[in-house]
Structure formats: structure tokens, C-alpha cells
Amino acid sequence: MRRDHVVPLPAQAIALLDELRRMNGNGEYLFPSLRTWKRPMSENTLNAALRRMGYSGDEMTAHGFRASFSTLANESGLWHPDAIERALAHVEKNEVRRAYARGDHWEERVRLADWWASYLDDAKAG
After folding, report:
1. How much is the pLDDT for 98?
2. What is the DSSP string of 45-87?
3. Are 48 and 41 within 8 A, CB to CB?
4. Distance between CA 76 and CA 65 in Å, rounded?
5. pTM, entire model
6. Which residue ranges does the record assign to the Tyr recombinase domain (predicted)?
7. Which of 107, 88, 109, 91 is nearest to 99 (CA)?
């Protein structure tokens, strides 16, 4: 989106990123392109991996993980919708509201990231 987006990382994400860094060395990208380490992996690479795992394009896309997060976070009723939207780097469409509602909801986004990581841990554990 060509905008800075700061993301709070839960301990689980930091551990995974540390492990990935050890596997990939100290390159610029943790997920480099298969063709050149000077560019990041594309969304199409992730979608191709999902197809190889047996998911059709109607069942899941890389972008669909964001939709799943949004749906589950909103349906939980635990989080302010603006915090969820900021976590997704979405910009308020209403120009007047966007001009005045500039908060980043950081503290809530930190708790939201921890909640999401625990949710995924629980889902993985069954």
C-alpha cells in the first residue's frame, strides 16, 4: 500500500521469525523470491502453495487469511472494530471520520495480536 505499517508481534511470531532467520541467513527478506533473493516472495507464490495443498481458489487464497482474522476478531466481540481495521492497515473510507479519527489503537492491537496468536495455537492443538 506504499504506507508504513507498524505491527505488534506476539512472542510466538518472534520465535517463528527467529527460526526462519536462522534457516534463511541474514538476507534482506525472510521470504525471498525463488528467482532472486533481492525481491520478496509474491502473493502468487503463496496461492500456488495453497493449490498444491489441495485448496481451490474458491476455498482459500493468501489474502483470505486476512479475511479470516477480521471475521474471527470481529465476531469475538472483544475488540474495537477500529483496532481490527488498523491491524489490517485499512484506511477509513469516510473522509470526515478519517480526518479526525487518527488513533492507531496500539495497546489494544498488542493485546489483539497476543489473542490471535493464542487462538492459532489452540486451533493447531485441536
Report:
1. 67
2. HHHHHHHHTT--TTT--TTHHHHHHHHHHHHHT-S-HHHHHHH
3. no
4. 16
5. 0.83
6. 1-117
7. 91
